[in-house]
Structure formats: structure tokens, C-alpha cells
Amino acid sequence: MDFLVWVENWPFSIWVRESGTLLAYPTILFLHTVGLSIVVGISAAIALRVLGVARAIPLPPLASFYRLLWAGFWVNALSGAALLAADATTKLTNPVFYIKMACVALAMFATVRLRRSLSARLNQVGAREPGRFLAAASLALWVGAVTAGRLMAYIGPVSGAPGLTNKFGR
Amino acid sequence: MVHAFGTWLHGTSLSWAMSGGYPWLWPACETLHFIGLALLVGVAGLLDLRMIGMAKGIPLAGFDRLMPWAIAGFAINAVTGFLFFSGDPFQYLNNVAFWMKMLFIALAGLNVLLFYVTGLHRRVHATGAGEDAPTGARIVGAVSLFLWIGVMYWGRMLPFIGNAF
């Protein structure tokens, strides 16, 4: 706990939490949302295709979206670390945070493994399409990650700091 | 008129349910709103990126069957968005970020409309694997990406602009 208090008192953490500028907490939260749309959006579209939606889309060119997917992942790892530092004593004592991290790790693993199913060799006409289990797992785990992320603002220890409003209304 | 609608809506049992009558309802809708966001921006974004010039191995007609998923994402978000609005209409009506978000959504709709009425969609549909999309489609794709990122920006700014800041 001493460590978490120390992290929360870094000048950077205080700036994110208390500077009161749109560039701090609100913009970092926005970047975290854009990253989510890139990572979960691209993963979901690829998973749907592997599951049999829109078969007119050839699988191999979809692999070129992985570079952008990784960019989105790093945007969220960094913005997430900043949000975490600003609110360490609350977030790191919330079990929902660890559920989210587990879902994200497993979902990224499934999504990255799914890339192998996109290769031309496995995409021969008539061949049984591989990767369906990974695609379904990726979709389910991303839904879990988004749900846990959203519920961190409601379940378990929730920050009372006015600068850390991650919800609107009730 | 908007004011009268807001006052009426605030008095409905739907508004009561959303504003704490059922405490789980608001977080549940938020979760669905983020899943809808990922579906809409992810699926529509892939088409936009292909039109701009990424993953040219995909024939543009291939996206036809994927688009209903983007529309489903939009529908989820329109419904959950209206539910948020019903919970506390004036929290939104008096917020400039809300009106900017609505403006950006309307512009994104106009962008799609232009895509169809100009006949651009037919030329896009004929764009095969390895071919460049028409210049007009590149512009539509770039504008779409900009507008949806803008929609996310204004949505995220709702609790901050005009409230805590």
C-alpha cells in the first residue's frame, strides 16, 4: 500500500488527477477509448470473418491490420498506465481491475494466435476453416474486458476524487 | 420544444429507471454502449481504411456482408444513448459536448448519404482486389474516420466540458 501511495504522489500522477486541464485526465481517457475501438474493433471484425461472416473478404489481407491493432494496444497500455498511476490505491485494490487484465491478456493471446489462421496456405478452397475456437474466444474475452473496464467505475473501491470522474449521471 | 420534450421525458418511468430506479441499468447500458462503439468504429473503420488504401487485397464488395454488424453497433448505441438521455435530459441538453457529438453523428450520416446519392457506392463496389478506390471514396473514408473519432472525443468530454471544467 505504501508503494501505491508513493505512485499516486508522483508529480505526473498528481498532474493527471488534479491539474484540472482537459489535456490531463479527460484526454488520456479519450485516447484509451480510441485505442479500445482500434483493438477491439479490428479483433472483432477479423473474428467475425473467421467465424464465417462476409466470406467474400479474403483472409490473408486482413493480416495487414495487425500493425494498427498493435499500435492501438500500445496506446492503451500507456494511457492505461497513466490512468492507473493517478488512481493506484483505488484501482489496484479493486478485484475487477485484475479480471480486466486477465481478460485483456487472454484476448490479446487469442487475437494474436488467430493471425495464423489468416495465412494463404490454410485458406485453400474446401479446407476446413481453422481458428473458429480462437475467434469465438477472442470475441468473448474482449466483451469481458470491456465489461470489466466499464464496471471498474461502479464495483469495488471506486475513486471519490472529483478529477477522476469516469462516469456521467447516476 | 426541446425543453418541453426534456421535461416530459424526465417525468417518465423510463427516466426514473435510468436515473437510479434500477441501479444496475446505467452501468449495463454503458457497457453495451462501449461494445457497440467497438463494433461500429471497428467494422466501419476497416472499410474506411481499405478505401483509403490499406489492405488492397480485399475487393471492396467483400465488405457488404460485414456492414450489418456496424449498423448493429450503431443501433445498440442509438438505443442505449437515448436511455442515458432519458435518465437526465438536461444534463445533456445544457452541455455543448452533447450538441457537438450530435453534430458529428449527423455529419457522419450526411457523409454516408453523399456516398450513395453521388453514385460513388457503385464505383466502390466495382473496386476489385489490388485496385485503388476512386478518389471520392478515399475522401469519404478519411472524413468518416475523422468524424467517428470526433464522436468518441465529444462523448468522452461529456462529464468534463461544461461540468467539472
Mean pLDDT of chain A: 90
Task: Tell me the major beta sheet of chain B.
Answer: none
Radius of gyration of chain A: 19 Å
Order of helices and strands of chain A: HHHHHHH
Q: What is the count of β-strands of chain A?
A: 0
> Globular, elongated, flat, extended or rod-shaped: what is the shape of chain A?
elongated
Helix content of chain B: over 70%
Specify the structural class of chain A. mainly alpha
Structural class of chain B: mainly alpha
**Segments of chain B where pLDDT lies below 50 for 5+ residues?**
none
Arithmetic mean of pLDDT of chain B: 95
What is the 3D shape of chain B? elongated
The residue fraction in helices of chain A comes out at 55-70%
Beta fraction of chain A: under 5%
Q: What this model shows, in words?
A:
The complex is a heterodimer of chains A (170) and B (165). By secondary structure, chain A is an all-alpha fold. Helix content of chain A is 62%, strand content 0%. Chain A has helices at 2-8, 11-18, 25-50, 66-86, 88-91, 95-114, 132-151. In chain A, helix 3 (25-50) packs antiparallel against helix 4 (66-86), helix 3 runs antiparallel to helix 7 and helix 6 runs antiparallel to helix 7 (132-151). The two termini of chain A are 30 Å apart. Chain B is mostly helical and 165 residues long. Chain B has 9 helices and no strands. Chain B is elongated, with a radius of gyration of 18 Å. At the A-B interface, helix 3 and helix 7 of A face helix 2, helix 3, helix 4, helix 8 and helix 9 of B.
